[in-house]
Amino acid sequence: MKRSIRFFTVSALAAGIAACGGGSDGSGSTGTVSFDVTDAPAMEFSSVTVTFTGISLKPQDGEWVEFSFDEPKTWDLLDLQGGVSEPLITDEEVPAGPYSELRLLVDTGGSYVELEAEPGIEKSLAVPSGQQSGLKLKGEFLVAADTTTDFTIDFDVKKSIVNPQGTSLADYLLKPSLRLVNNLEVGSISGEVDYVTLSQTRANDADLADCATGYEGAVYIYEGINATPTDINVNSEEAGPLMAVPVADDDYDGIYTYTAAFLTAGEYTISYSCQLDDNETDDGLDFEGTQNVTVVANTNVEADPIPLLP
Fold first, then answer.
1. N or C: where does the chain have the smaller number of CB atoms within 10 Å of the terminal CB?
2. Cα–Cα distance measured from residue 20 to residue 2, given in angstroms and rounded to the nearest whole number
3. Which Pfam families did the record assign (predicted)?
4. Do residues 115 and 123 lie in contact, with contact meaning Cβ atoms separated by under 8 Å?
């Protein structure tokens, strides 16, 4: 069952998993948890299909709690965008208290990618040797006692899929960039982009770089206010955008829209570029419509239309 970020109801259906493990906060209390998976959008792939076989949680002062799925869960992560997610586990009882790490177990034999430039051709996807025990996400999170805590794991495909350039037996490597959010603490940003006007303006102005052919652009999301827009450069140590969300005319009515979901409540800077981000070099994209947006938990915030009005 796919879920929408703010208005979903936790499913009461059985998750089809078996659990083992232990550990607690020392009081013997328990809580229940649900973990979903979603994807921050990528632009060069037409499909990123990943097969999950389990999830493990590490209490700060206890043993791993492991959930192995009776049947693998396979999804094209590119379907899980704009606030859509899929359940990994639902309403499972675990020790209450702080946790320090989680791991996602992946079957690479059932995982592959397809490129926009090569439709219908499946490229193999492998996990680096250091990740064989599971795709790791380190960082503290809290399971409250005697209640249900819902989390979402944001699986950033654009930062997670790496081309090994002939140094691996697989076509691509899965070196995950994961972000964990508590669903009670997140909201979303949505808005419109006048792509047609922007692209025509650039085509008619010799001083402006043209928009990329066949690409409507993306809205880049940065943490904090007044951030300087930059591209996504996975080889840079500098902080880049939290995500880049492609705009699209989904209803074919000439209105190009976007939604950036599962954002923790707080201050953000957003900006738009119609130029293709090559993900490897910092050639400097041209950005428009830069603005500050405050995200409120359990709320969709409408950003100002791009380009900004005078």
1. C
2. 26
3. DUF4382 (PF14321)
4. yes
Mean pLDDT of the chain: 83
Give pLDDT tens digits for 237-275. 566 888 888 899 988 888 899 999 999 999 999 999 999
181 found inside a domain: no
φ, ψ of residue 199 to 5 degrees: the values are -65, -40
Model confidence, pTM: 0.80
Please count the structural domains in the chain.
2
In contact, 194 and 256? CB cutoff 8 Å:
yes
pLDDT of residue 42: 64
> Is 185 in a helix, a strand, or coil?
helix
Q: Which two tokens stand for residue 107?
A: 């079957």
Q: Are residues 134 and 225 in the same domain?
A: no
Whether residues 24 and 87 share a domain: the answer is yes
Distance CA 304, CA 310 (A): 12
Say if residue 284's pLDDT is above 80: no
Domain with 93 in it? 3-176
Nearest C-alpha neighbor of 245 from the set 222, 214, 265, 225: 222
Among 234, 233, 256, smallest CA distance to 245 is for 256
Q: How far apart are CA 302 and CA 298, in angstroms?
A: 13
Question: Under 8 Å CB-to-CB from 200, ≥6 apart: which residues?
Answer: none
Residue 73: band (very low, low, confident or very high) from pLDDT cuts 50, 70, 90:
very high
Task: Give which of 42, 38, 84 is closest to 232, Cα–Cα.
Answer: 42
Residue 275 CB partners (closer than 8 Å, separation 6+): 209, 211, 212, 217, 285, 286
